[in-house]
Amino acid sequence: MSYYPGQGYNGGGGGGYGYGPPPGHPPPQQYYSGPPPQQQRSYGPPSGPSQHHNYGPPPGPPQNHYGPPQQHYGPPGGPPPPTNYGSVSRGSSQAPKRYPPPNYPPPPHLDAYGYPLPQGRHHHAQHARSGPPPPDVPQQFGHGAPEGYTFQYSKCNGRRKALLIGINYFGQQGELRGCINDVHNISAFLVERYNYKREDMIILTDDQQDPIMIPTRENIIRAFGWLIQNAQPNDALFLHYSGHGGRVEDLDGDEDDGFDECIYPVDHAQAGPIIDDEIHARVVKPLLQGVRLTAIFDSCHSATVMDLPYVYSTKGVLKEPNLAKEAASGLFDAFSAYSRGDLAGAASSVFALAKSAMTGDEVYEYNKQTRTSPADVVMFSGSKDDQTSADATINSQATGAMSWAFISALKANPQQSYVELLNSVRDILEEKYTQKPQLSSSHPIDTDLLFVM
Prior knowledge:
By secondary structure, the chain is an alpha/beta fold.
């Protein structure tokens, strides 16, 4: 079926893109077969990612019409079990399973969403001091940012829009199970807890028949444009991606490790990945001062996938380049790869180490000068740039560990500061996983302020 300007599903809002409600969520097309067998997975790059290095601009956004999903899946119900971060095999041809929310009361130790009530060792959120709200007056950048710049924290009391992307890669090598569930869980959470409306959401998943709702490279880029279109100060935008992530060679010298981070659309083998430079240019750079964009990337190698220059530690302070630590880590990685007989991996580690040693400080300063933004962009990522993120199983429902932990932390205590939320998410994950979620931003932030979105 083709779509032409003015031929929307039901008209609807969304400015020039005109997003109205589409049909429901039928089983996937024949190109995307059913869920894979029960295996442990990670959100690393799918087997055999295409080596595309030319990322020219896609066609301009056509007048297609997006709309809200017709159903959602309830959030998971308990801590995920341990998992390994290995490769996966090709899935079966079964139709994807559906996981409706339970219609019975939760047990005493769980909340209405099925998440554990605050207890145990989530100490950062348990006694949160719920920092002050964001200030109303413009703030000075400081911290080496361009002189004369000011930024404005968003009050998040304007229009709300959300773009949620979940890719299970049905029928492909590296098939995942939890990504589609992730976005429906996040959707329900945003609606019920943060006053988002389903008619102001786009959900791209690879279990839909509507061709413009499939998370292809072109559709993702188009949806980026929809998300930021006409955004004004104090608007609250939300971007969630759950799927494969990876690294490709950096071609423009803006990465101190020699690699760009990227995400893999469902058609990555034909269209290529979407690298961090392009994500930043399309969803961060165009935003006005005072517009909030909260982003969650539940994928491998995702710490700097939006190229936000300010990364924070669990103490709430900016992370500065530590070349001595990076050198030790790079040498260890190279030695480990060599001992496994992985000569290519050893060479890659040595290349990254050499490039980092030569350009670390210069790249850090360059990125602060060129990637700092007056927009209020905050990202929580599922792992460091050199780590994988887990595809977990929680009470028989597949889900991304980072997506589960983010919702769980805010359900346990919605009144947390930025640094408290970072630590809460880490506390939840470190019981079962090695991945270390990261907090980054487009401008320096006071991490003791109350987290809002």
